[in-house]
Amino acid sequence: MDKIRWGILSTANIGRQRVIPAIQHSNNGMVAAIASRGIKRAQAVAREMDIPRAYGSYEELLADPDIDAIYNPLPNHLHAPWSIKAAEAGKPTLCEKPFAGDAAEAQEMVDVFKSRNILLAEAFMYRFHPRTQRAKQLVDEGVVGKVKLMQASFSFLMSPDRRAGDVRMKKEMAGGALMDVGCYCVNVIRLMLGEEPERVTASAVWADSGVDMNMVGTLKFPSGALAHFGCGFDAVPDSNYEILGDEGQILVESGFVATANAEQVIHVWRGDKHEVITIPGVDHYQLMVEDFADALISGRPPRFDPQDAAENMRVLDRLYISARV
Ligand SMILES: NC(=O)c1ccc[n+]([C@@H]2O[C@H](COP(=O)([O-])OP(=O)(O)OC[C@H]3O[C@@H](n4cnc5c(N)ncnc54)[C@H](OP(=O)(O)O)[C@@H]3O)[C@@H](O)[C@H]2O)c1
Questions:
Q1: How confident is the model at residue 2 (pLDDT cuts 50, 70, 90)?
Q2: Is 96 a pocket residue for ligand 1 (Cβ < 6 Å)?
Q3: What is the whole-number distance in angstroms between the Cα of residue 159 and the centre of ligand 1?
Q4: What pTM was computed for the model?
Q5: pLDDT band at 1 (very low <50, low <70, confident <90, very high)
Q6: Domains, the chain, with CATH or none
Q7: For residue 21, what are the CA distances in angstroms to 224, 238, 285?
Q8: Which residues contact 42 (CB under 8 A, 6 or more apart)?
Q9: Pairing verdict, β 273-279 and 264-270
Q10: Contact in structure between 264 and 133 (CB atoms under 8 Å)
Q11: Does ligand 1 have an atom closer than 6 angstroms to the CB of 146?
């Protein structure tokens, strides 16, 4: 097996815009089939994106013996049920973020895949960008000294006319700003600090639909490091994160998003020295799907353990509990 045959669960925007092209450009995968709730929609996208097979139901895709791996970009509340169905069909699965509706679902996913010895991973693509790896390496090498503070933000303006129909605005579909974009902030904070928060607080502004429109959160870590983040659907776009230690500071601008060919930079301050590290542009979606396919081909675990996804969801749960008090 030198090329993984991927099956795409739905015609979601993120699949069509980013992940399907990334698989098609990857060196170890191809998109073999796509499924939609309606066959016409599946056929139209298959034709448009040069995908050989189209199915009018998700069940048919999972039953296809020629599919080696599933990419699950369904709305958040369907991540767990359909990933678990994929496991029951014996299919390794790359599931979109946030991993599930809550931590209990996320843990169930991890346990089901583990008990069957089937590969599972969360599609946090930004972790595969060399910029993220370089920032983590700088922190681990002690470039900022001992980490004291970290901040992260991820926001964008969702136009009022889009709000009504958007799955992210629906509570019953596990929508909300924390679920959609704040999950990146929590993830990068846990990644950079390499520990789990012992104390978590949050405040939110709620939409009429019951989802959090904007949220801020604080996290206190056993090492003594403190972190805070802000995320939202009605603030101008921002996706920076910053790590401050007792000797220096790292700033990663637009740390969660990256245009494939655009160079990225990391700012590092130590004393009165300011260094700008330039990272060549890459498609982090492609690096993510190549890692998953390579793990499958070579029989190794994926680069990021799915248990990390369950731990991330645990923090999201705690933030919601705090914000609702
Ligand atoms: N990693 C990233 O960069 C990134 C970026 C954006 C979004 N995401 C994640 O990807 C997932 C999908 O986001 P998206 O913005 O691409 O969503 P979307 O365009 O709304 O697509 C979701 C798809 O799910 C299917 N679906 C099944 N049941 C549905 C229901 N009851 N209501 C609506 N759709 C239903 C539909 O496909 P069919 O009609 O074909 O069945 C729909 O096209 C989310 O979990 C989101 O968090 C990740």
A1: confident
A2: yes
A3: 18
A4: 0.98
A5: confident
A6: 4-124 (3.40.50.720), 130-281 (3.30.360.10)
A7: 42, 25, 9
A8: 11, 34, 35, 36, 54, 55, 56
A9: antiparallel
A10: no
A11: no
